[in-house]
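REVIEWER CHECKLIST
Item 1: Sequence provided? yes
Item 2: Single chain? yes
Item 3: Sequence as submitted:
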Amino acid sequence: MKLQPINLLLLLSVVLVCACEKVIDVDLNESDPQLVIEARLQQGQHDFEVLISQTVNYFSNEAPAFRNDAQVRLLDNTGTSIDIPLVNDGLYRANVEAVSGQTYTLEVTLDDTRYLASAEVPVPVELRELESEFREAFGPLDEGYQVFLRFTDDPQRKNYYRQIHAIDGIYELAGEDLQVTDDNLFDGSENARLPIFQRAFDPGVTLTVILQHIDEGSFEYLNSLSDIIGEDGGPNSGSAAPGNPTGNWDGEILGYFGAFTADTLQIELPE
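Item 4: Structure as written out by the authors:
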């Protein structure tokens, strides 16, 4: 097998674009029209995007009503603020440079009401190695290669991770591919070993794996979303779940403001 480092910024831009286009069909609580504000801040210089809409049912099939009348600002804990201008329907964007270890606050003002959410950019975690093991079919698990991520978990803090993978360059973004975890089972390990859960990969494929080190707010949101998907047979099938994902906005706002760092490797599985 062969490991190859690849262009992280290019991959992250592809993943974010794909994630925005992918629709996950899940049943959520119906409610009166509510604001939905989603934004993800990554370490380093990048185009930071905030999507603002208003809809009847979160993730409904109805077209969202984009909000183009918001004032959006990003503030860090040094007192620096950046205005995020509108660039398209509901989409606000500005080039920013996010520093790991700093806490950022996203401020959105709509209809004379100010909404706030905060996120700390985690420290980078190096994805050192990808391992593969061939396994025979067992119960509901198919025959194929199971892949494990190797990295060092920081013992000084609680850590949260998200895995994203692509098979031969095509990102797998269905509901069952939403995989997040905390470090309860490997806290402080210098050689943490994290599997890509419930997946067997065919021989000969090229697997691209992104390990995102995410903040707590991102974990709470994505983990609750995974629980909701699990009610319909997803990765956490059978677990209790709230009606809507757990966001970190003050007030009655859906969505979340999260932060992450990431590292990427490729592995070519044996024929």
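Item 5: Key structural point noted by reviewer: The longest helix spans residues 216-230.
Item 6: Recommendation: ____
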